[in-house]
Design goal:
Keywords: Membrane, Transmembrane, Transmembrane helix. It is built from eight helices and eleven strands. A four-stranded antiparallel sheet has the order 7-8-10-11. A three-stranded antiparallel sheet has the order 5-6-9. The longest helix is centred in the first third of the chain and has 21 residues. Strand 5 and strand 6 form a beta hairpin. With 225 residues, it is an alpha+beta fold.
């Protein structure tokens, strides 16, 4: 029995590694450098080009999101992803699902987190945090078990970034629009197994380094909560 369990874990580890190596991804390249999380937030928001005008999100379409793609993967149009997210969140605001706030020069999307309450009996938390390590500033989205499953299902169905971002925003409570836009854009081009394989029953923790290549395990990582 012990041997069977070992073989099962071994197969899962090999399959997980192979999956991460084959998923579609893209690189959001920026030349800006940041020394702390506050500076990074300013660079992040400015480079994405999102602002708030009379309680409505506005995306600067003249903004050029520089992209590099891997030869073996399908590229993700992050410019279109941000536009999709802005449109979807504006619609969600009109429907009363979310509101927008400016906090220290950044635009945040805020909700009462009611969608996450529906899965409150499940394990894990829904939250946003940020910080900095030797690798640079980072942003973290925690998705509980229910939200992780929902997001994975959307990814598997090929949902647009705006749909994924709205689902996350309505559950987390408060997150910078620029952050959820970029992460949702990346998720829309990745395989759902990255969520499934890192959800041990309490959801996942997604960490994004905006100044590193958007490669799983490098610029974006997935860990169990």
């Amino acid at each position: 029995m012990v041997q069977d369990r070992y073989e099962l874990v071994s197969r899962r580890s090999v399959f997980k590694t192979a999956t991460q190596a084959l998923v579609a991804t893209s690189i959001f390249a920026t030349g800006a450098k940041a020394t702390d999380s506050e500076t990074d937030d300013e660079v992040y928001d400015e480079s994405v080009g999102i602002s708030l005008d009379e309680d409505k999100l506005v995306y600067d379409e003249s903004n050029d999101l520089s992209l590099e793609t891997h030869e073996e993967t399908e590229s993700v149009d992050l410019d279109e992803s941000v536009r999709s997210t802005v449109d979807a969140l504006n619609e969600a605001r009109e429907d009363g699902e979310v509101t927008f706030e400016e906090r220290d020069g950044e635009v945040w999307v805020v909700s009462d987190g009611m969608e996450s309450d529906e899965a409150s009996v499940l394990c894990g938390t829904n939250d946003y945090t940020s910080g900095s390590t030797s690798r640079g500033p980072y942003h973290v989205l925690k998705l509980d078990d229910g939200l992780s499953r929902d997001v994975a299902a959307l990814m598997a169905a090929g949902a647009a970034a705006g749909v994924i971002a709205t689902k996350i925003s309505a559950s987390i409570g408060a997150v910078p629009v620029a952050v959820v836009s970029m992460i949702a854009g990346i998720l829309s081009g990745l395989g759902a197994l990255l969520i499934h394989e890192n959800n041990d029953g309490c959801g996942v923790k997604i960490r994004h380094y905006p100044h590193l290549p958007e490669v799983p395990g490098v610029g974006i990582t997935f860990r169990p909560q």
